[in-house]
Each structure stands twice: as structure tokens, then as C-alpha cells.
Amino acid sequence: SDCWWDGKLLLNCSLTGVSALPEDIPQTAVTADFSYNNIKTFLCPDGRDEEWMLKHLNLSNNLLSELTLTACRSLPGLETLNLNGNAIHTLTLDIPTPAHGSNRGGKVGYLLPALKVLSVEGNKLNRVPRGLGLLQSLQTVHLTANGIEQIELNDFQNCSQLKDINLRKNNIAEIHPDAFRDLHKLQVVDLRDNALTTPLPQIFLTLNFFQLEVDLSGKAW
């Protein structure tokens, strides 16, 4: 392909017109940029029982509509995943329970265990992706400019490391009163440009937020 490889850490395939990930991605790459292409399907690289060094993956501004991350076991070091500017309406995070005896070396089969930042801005999600709690290191989730209509009780369940949630420019009208209750490290929640009707004090009164951003203009309450 027309991708540029610096021979050690960086693979740059941005604006190359690729429609699929190259099969010869170097396993030593730390950063891979596939933004602004025509990729319709993403399958995690086949590690062939070897772990990749990849920490930062950019798939923004492609043609992705459905995405499954359940098989991404060859990317244990991935820290940031950028999926902005696609047409994703389904993002599957749930993973099956490991078969008995398959837990080699005593390792727990968490999904993308090092992932800290998940960004899915400007897509077509109508709900918060299920299974975020499987991302054990997740600190930041950006879901700006989707079609999310409500925040349910279990949307952020078990997201114990979560610090920053950006839900700006959605269609959120309701938030379950206990949706954020157990997120003890949460510092920032951005709910601007939504259709909130639930009085915020009832939701956030017991939480110790560092920063809460809400546009109060024109709200029913």
C-alpha cells in the first residue's frame, strides 16, 4: 500500500485510499493511523498467538457502520482508540466467558485491558455501547454528536477508572438517577446540547464532581 512506515514505531496510512487494513502491519508499531480512508470493516489484527506493541489506533473518518471488538486479544497494550467520524450504529464490546481451562498463565481475559481512551464522536449510536465495564482501564469515553436518547442504570456499570464522560450534542432526555453513582473517580461530565428534562440536582447531588458542564438555557426545568 501507500502507507508510510518509519521503520520502528509509526505506521501512517492516512489519506491513502485503503479500504481495508493491510495484512503486513508491523507488530512493532506503537501508533497506527488509518484515518480518512474507505475502510468499511475492521477486524483486529491476527496476532497468531503473538502480542502486538500497538498503543494508539486511529480509524477516524472512514465508512465503518458496525464494529465488534470482542476478538481483540492480540492488542493487550492498546491505550487509545479513535473511531470518530464514521457511521457506527452498533459497537459490540461483550466477550464470551472463557472456556474452562482456557485461561493460560492465569491471565484474566479482559477486553483491551490497557485501553484508557475510547472516542466514538460523530457516529450514529442511539445508546451507550454495552460492555464498557469490560474495559478495565477506561478513563475517558467521548460519545459526542451521536443519537443517544437516554442514560440507563447500567450504561457505565463497573467503569471504576472512568474520569471523563463527554455526551455533548446527543438527544438525551433522561438520565437514570443512579447511572453515575459508583463512578468514584469521575471528574468531568459534559451534557451540553441535549434535551434534558430530569432535574440535575437529584442525579449529581451525592457525587463529588470536579467539573460538570451542562447548558441550562431553554430547558424545561
Proportion of beta-strand residues: 15-25%
Tell me how many strands there are.
14
Give the spatial strand order of the biggest sheet.
1-2-3-4-6-8-9-11-13-14
Q: How would the global form be characterised?
A: globular
Give me the Rg, rounded. 19 Å
SSE class: mainly beta
Order of helices and strands: EEEEEEEEEEEEEHE
- Average the pLDDT over all residues and give the rounded result: 85
Q: What's the total helix number? A: 1
Portion in helices: under 10%
Distance linking N and C termini? 55 Å
Task: List unreliable stretches of 5+ residues.
Answer: 96-108
Biggest β-sheet, characterized?
A: 10 strands, mixed
Pfam family, one: LRR_8
Protein name: Leucine-rich repeat-containing protein 66
Keywords: Leucine-rich repeat, Repeat, Signal
Signal peptide: 1-20
Question: Could you please describe the fold and organization of this structure?
Answer:
- The protein has one helix spanning 200-204, and strands at residues 4-5, 10-12, 31-33, 56-58, 66-68, 80-82, 90-92, 117-119, 140-142, 150-151, 164-166, 174-175, 188-190, 211-213.
- It has 221 residues and is mainly beta.
- A hairpin with a 4-residue loop joins strand 1 (4-5) and strand 2 (10-12).
- It is globular.
- The strands form three sheets. A ten-stranded mixed sheet has the order 1-2-3-4-6-8-9-11-13-14, with no helix packed on it. A two-stranded parallel sheet has the order 5-7.
- It holds the Pfam family LRR_8.
- This is Leucine-rich repeat-containing protein 66.
- InterPro entries: Leu-rich_rpt, Leu-rich_rpt_4, Leu-rich_rpt_typical-subtyp, LRR_dom_sf, LRR_TM_domain-containing.
- Keywords: Leucine-rich repeat, Repeat, Signal.
- It comes from Dryobates pubescens (Downy woodpecker).
